[in-house]
TrEMBL record:
This is FAD-dependent oxidoreductase. Gene3D superfamilies: FAD/NAD(P)-binding domain. Residues 9-134, 137-325 form the FAD-binding domain. Its cofactor is FAD. Pfam families: FAD_binding_3. The lineage of its organism: Bacteria, Pseudomonadati, Pseudomonadota, Alphaproteobacteria, Rhodobacterales. Keywords: FAD, Flavoprotein, Monooxygenase, Oxidoreductase.
Length: 375
């Protein structure tokens, strides 16, 4: 910490994971931070998040580890299963990287932890502030998500395209669940589920479809549509789906990673900079990484323009690589026919003879340490 940020005003648009984490990281380094959030209250839709070690290193460095631990579960493994429920491979995270922290958390709990930490550090949070015309600020940070005004001001208007996939999400009750994430892979569809603290279970179910759904996540749907789409699935899935009383559906759109992340006075992070399909579970994790690196770069250089350029150079290649990996996973989970049988057989074999090798494919994501890279 250099003290370079002491008393410097920073305005952040958006009080989601990216905006609140950036606010805490900047405030800890001395900045005077205001967060402008359009919602009348900081509230989150009901859904889960997987936090992987790359993001946990940042949350731990910000002193939030104990608060996160109190409201989340450890994730011991990722279990890939066929639609019938039979195991394809179980990736043992604990065994592969002892001590690396994978946590399963309800989004609302994460936002509460971040909001409380921001408020008690002295961040000013202004609710009900819908920022359409950008305020003139010496440093304006756009953490305003998928339809970011700050991104549009830097890059012009861009049009995302529908991926041909819609997804349902639901939370059900489940006491005493095994703390691992499970992915059930069927032709043209897959279902991800993991337990959350407080006796809950998160479900995300993705279906390839020609039907166009809105982008955004708060459209309620009839649970019968979810039941029908996954009627052929086995294992615990029918029991879980029978419990779903309320479900939301949304369309999955592809966006390019922003080509311009900053102009010396404005910068973007999180979904505003690199919206991703959810198939690597890294959207929020990347937002948390961004937040740390942005604050560290601003703290390290007296020249704001150079600091923001360094932030963009450090973050853009990694974000682009993770977004590409998520796009590839969308295809891998939904294989059909002979390609599906071959891919699952290869995974089963790999899991038996070289489980470390299967897991090591993602070391570049989980072993990354933003705190060590930019202290
Ligand atoms: C089903 C699903 C599962 C996911 N699972 C995972 C996972 O397991 N792990 C993971 O890391 N990520 C996951 N993600 C991704 C993750 O949720 C997002 O990447 C992350 O929430 C992005 O945070 P953000 O702060 O950039 O954007 P948001 O959370 O969208 O926050 C943006 C904020 O800006 C505010 N805002 C927007 N416009 C304005 C405006 N004009 N004025 C003022 N405020 C404004 C909004 O109200 C909002 O509060 C998942 C996403 C989905 C859809």
């Amino acid at each position: 910490m250099t003290g370079m940020l002491r008393s410097r005003p920073v305005t952040i648009v958006g009080g989601g994971v990216a905006g609140l984490t950036a606010a805490i990281a900047l405030r800890r380094r001395g900045a005077e931070v205001a967060v402008l959030e359009r919602a009348p209250a900081i509230a989150e839709v009901g859904a889960g998040l997987q936090l992987s070690p790359n993001a946990m290193r940042v949350l731990d460095a910000l002193g939030l580890g104990p608060a996160i631990d109190a409201v989340s579960l450890p994730s011991r493994a990722v279990r890939l299963r066929d639609a019938s429920g039979s195991d394809v491979v179980r990736l043992d995270m604990d065994g592969h990287r002892p001590g690396a922290r994978f946590r399963l958390i309800h989004r609302a709990r994460l936002i509460e932890v971040l909001e409380q930490a921001a408020a008690s550090a002295g961040v000013r949070i202004e609710l009900g502030r819908d920022i359409a015309a950008l305020p003139d600020a010496p440093l304006l940070i756009g953490a305003d998500g998928l339809h970011s005004h700050v991104r549009a001001s830097l890059n012009g208007r861009e049009v995302p395209f529908f991926t041909g996939q819609t997804a349902w999400r639901a939370v059900i009750d489940d006491e005493n669940a095994v703390p691992e994430a499970q992915v059930f892979m069927g032709p043209g569809r897959h279902l991800v589920s993991y337990p959350l603290a407080g006796g809950l279970r998160n479900i995300v179910a993705v279906l390839e479809t020609r039907e166009w759904q809105d982008e955004g996540w708060s459209r309620p749907d009839d649970p019968a549509n979810l039941h029908a789409a996954f009627a052929g699935f086995g294992g615990p899935v029918p029991g879980w789906l029978a419990q779903v009383k309320a479900v939301h559906v949304w369309g999955l759109f592809r966006h390019e990673v922003a080509s311009r992340w900053q102009d010396g006075r404005r910068a973007i992070l999180g979904d505003a900079a690199h919206p991703t399909l959810p198939f690597m579970a890294q959207g929020a994790c990347m937002a948390i990484e961004d937040a740390w690196t942005l604050a560290a770069c601003l703290d390290a250089a007296p020249d704001q323009q150079a600091a923001l350029a360094r932030y963009e150079n450090l973050r853009k290649p990694r974000a682009a690589k993770i977004v590409a990996a998520a796009n590839a996973n969308a295809r891998n989970y939904h294989l059909t026919g002979a390609r599906r049988l071959a891919a699952h057989a290869a995974l089963r074999l790999g899991g038996r003879i070289a489980p470390g090798a299967v897991l090591s494919r993602f070391d570049w994501i989980y072993d990354f340490d933003p705190v060590a890279e930019t202290p």
